[in-house]
C-alpha cells in the first residue's frame, strides 16, 4: 500500500477522526507506532458531532421536501468528507497543519448553490432521479439524458405516454427492485435497488469486493517522480473533476483531455460550476474515433505521473488502452466508477443520486424514499479519490486505485448519527438540536473560480508539443 511504513497520528476524536483512521489504514498507514521508529504523518481533525457537519455542509438544506423541513441523512457522510479532506491536507503538508485554502464539507452543497437549486424531494435536487416503490423495497432510477427517455418503451415493454415517470412507477411497483434495476442496466439506464440498511448493501457486487471502498494494486516503480506531478484527467461531470480540482490546488499540473466528438457534459450546465472545477487546468481535445487521436492519448498517458479516469473499464479497453499495463510500467492510475472496476457490476452505469440510493443514503418519509443532498455519492467519492491520489503520489511505486462511488459513500453511512430533532427558531431559520447542542442549518455556499476554465482544446498544441514526443 502507498503509505506502508508510515505511522499516522490523528489529533482529534469523534466521527471524522474515526473515519480518518479507517481511511489511513486503507492506504496502508499504521495508526499506532509503539516504538516510534516509523516516519510520522500528523492529521488534524476537529472533534465536531456528525449532525453539526451535516447541518453546516449545505447538504442538509438540500434534503427534504420542497417547502418542508430540512432532514438529517443517515450516517456521517459530511464528517467523512471532512475527514478525507483532512487526510488530503496532511499528505500534502505532512505536518498536520490546517489548510485554510482547501474547502471543507461545504463541497457537498456547492454545485446546487451554483445552479440555484434547493430541496426537491421526492425528486432529486436536479430533478432527474427518483426512488420508486417496488414489490420488495424501492428502485432508484435516474433519467438525466434525452436518450434515457427513448429507452423507456424497451424498459417497461410498452409506451410511456405523456407521463413517463408515472409509467415507470407503475411498471416498477410489481417487480423486485433488484430485477428492475438489472433490466434497466442492460439498457444503459442508471438504476439500482435502494439499500434497506444504510451502508450495508446486500448485493453480489458489495460481497465480492469485500466491503472495500477503495482497492489498490501495486505496480512497477514510477517512471516519473516530478516535484510538480503531471495529472492527465480523463474524467467528467463531478466526482473526477472534483478530485482533479483538489489536486490542482496542491500545485499538480492538470491536463484535462476531452473527446472532440463528445465533450464533458458539464460544459452545458452551470458555467460557474464548470469554471470552479476546471479553472487553471490545461485542456486538450482529441478525436478518439481516429487512430491518431488514440495514439496521442496513449503517449500523453505515458508521460503522466497519474491518470484520472471515470469510464466503465470496457470503454478504454475498446480503444486499446490498458490501465493494468500502464500501472505495471510505472504510471499510477485512479479510476472512479459507480460500483468499482472490479466485480460483476463493473460495467454498470450510475449517477450520484442513484448510486447514493444504492448505498442506502435515503430517508423513508410517509412510505417514500427521499434522496439525501445533491448527488451525494459524487462529492464524497471525489474527495476520497483526491486523498488516495496524494497517497499514491507520495510512493515510489505506481498503483492502480479502484474507487467505487457507492462503496465510499456506504462506508460513511455505517456509523449511526446521534439522536436529534429539527426545529424552527424564532427567526424562522431551521436548526438541528441534539441532547448537548443546537446547530443552524446552513444554506449551500458556493466557492467561485478565480478565472474561467479553458475552452475545449485550447491547449492541445502547447501540451502535445511539451509532453508528447515527435
From TrEMBL:
SUPFAM superfamilies: CoA-transferase family III (CaiB/BaiF) (SSF89796). InterPro entries: CoA-transferase_III (IPR050509), CoA-Trfase_fam_III (IPR003673), CoA-Trfase_III_dom_1_sf (IPR023606). Pfam families: CoA_transf_3 (PF02515). GO terms for molecular function: transferase activity. Keywords: Transferase. It comes from the Bacteria. This is CoA transferase.
